[in-house]
Amino acid sequence: MGIYTELYPVNNHLRHAELLDGLWRFQFDPESRGEADAWPKNGLPESISMPVPASFSDVFTDARSRDYAGDFWYETAFCVKEVSPDKRYFIRFGSVTHTCRVFVNGVECASHTGGFLPVVADVTSAVVPGMNRLTVKANNELSETNIPCGTTVRRSDGSKRSMGYFDFFNYSGIQRSVYYMELPKCAIKDYSLVYRLEGSDAYIDYKIEADGGDEVSIAFIDAEGKVAARGDGEQGTLFIPSAHLWKVRNAYLYDVVIELKQGGKVTDRYTAKAGIRTVEIKGESILLNGEKVYLKGFGKHEDADMIGRGFNYAIAKRDYECLKWIGANCFRTSHYPYAEEWYRMADEEGFLIIDEVPAVGMMRSIANFLTAGRGEAKGFFAECPDIGTLSKNHRAAIEEVIARDKNHPSVIAWSIFNEAETYTELAEKYFAPLFELARALDPQKRPLTGALEKSSSPAACRVNKMMDFICLNRYYGWYISGGELEEAERMFREEMDAWQAKKLNKPFVFTEFGTDTLDTLHKLPGVMWSQEYQQEYMRMHFEVFAGYPAIQGELAWNFADFQTGQGIMRVNGNKKGVFTRQRQPKAAAYTIRERWLNIK
């Protein structure tokens, strides 16, 4: 029996969670010789120091190291005070990009495919009292059979280069925190919560999974420390009269306490936060706790100077403060699940999250942003070398993200893909079982969606019927009729009229719209790349949004400038940020703020 791998680490008198963040040892392995040379047992022979969590690329000053593709290794040590038969021992990584194998004292304890969700190694059989060697072999090569999709080619000197079918840098490494954990042998594996509201009262259907034990209980504790509800047994229903609800930008959180007993003795205790709220789609409306909500916010990236995609609390805090300042209430985790700390902070702050799996790049184009933005259809599924393996990895990502994030009140929807091919029979057959899987897995039955690019038009798209609400990524006035906002608006309204004519009776949310903008460029009249043009572009979109009642959300692209691969269309990255990469506002931020603070 295994301990459930997705529960966020907690520390108490029965559970021990110790951060292993800091400077690790690191070594590239371009010839993939590390295993043959017994690096997991003997150590990395020519290692350098490397911060964890962080992406490795931006700490280097040479291009080959920054752009490295292939095998690479991390190593550190951790201490086990004693090895007890009543405990189990684990190493938990927030993520390792994109594939990895984990060794302790030379013994392989885990492997994982997918670079944005937890990797948990049961190291019970490998640890010894005292110091233990922890070694990770990772690989960041891209392919068409794993997500995000891309390809890896060889240069003339034999070195590898990964080329993503997506418009963000392929940051890699141990980019999230690592924990050493000691858990009791009889332990809580998982739990799920589902909410129902009747007037001011709340009913909470709960389910708890445990390894061993003969009694389990759950309690909701309010902000005053009083027990609001308590239940015994692995599943049941709690009742809270006059419940405090979790609301947008007004979050009320209960403490959840789950205890497991064996023979009357408490063997495990797990604590978490919970927010009572419901989410549903009704006609063209998005409802939270039965009340309409209009989504205002951004697509984002985990992206910052020096640390790349590595998680940092100060950066996350600054982002939330900027989101509050501008009047936002929502963001999409484009284009992958973020570090768990983002969701925990959103729970506290009352932000809404559209949680996206890393299914981006399902369109054969290195300049994906141009292809998608212009609606130039590129095939993918017919040419995919192994669609079965791709589907398997896609399914695993859906399973893992729902397992990890299903109890966060901030998560209001799952996005199954971004800008994929959706206009062929093969695409329809590929996505149908994935949507079915997501509906079956989520206890709260959140709405499902996916972000559609221009080729996924009202006439061509075969996947929007699977979605509970429709997300559109559109760049009228940038990739289409750039610099001609009047013509762009005409074409934009023409498409929206076509969607409206289909009478889908579903909400629409714009999940991408924006312009590349240099924070140093001002020009009258506004021209592309100037701050004035970004403002005019936003105002045009706001006028269009106001004309279609089905539009129930606007998530601008992007929150902040972010790093991409090199190219003649990218000036040191994507500059579509409303904030700079250093989280300072561009002129358009004030235009958006004026609107969002007045949308109730």
Explain what this protein looks like in three dimensions.
Helices cover about 20% and strands about 30% of the residues. With about 600 residues, it is of the alpha/beta class. It folds into three domains: about 170 residues, Jelly Rolls, CATH 2.60.120.260; about 90 residues, Sandwich (Immunoglobulin-like); about 260 residues, Glycosidases (TIM Barrel), CATH 3.20.20. It has an eight-stranded parallel beta barrel with strand order 23-24-25-26-27-28-29-30. The chain has a six-stranded antiparallel beta sheet with strand order 3-2-4-9-6-7. A four-stranded antiparallel beta sheet has the order 1-12-5-8, with no helix packed on it. Strand 10 and strand 11 form a beta hairpin. Helix 6 packs parallel to helix 7. The protein is globular.
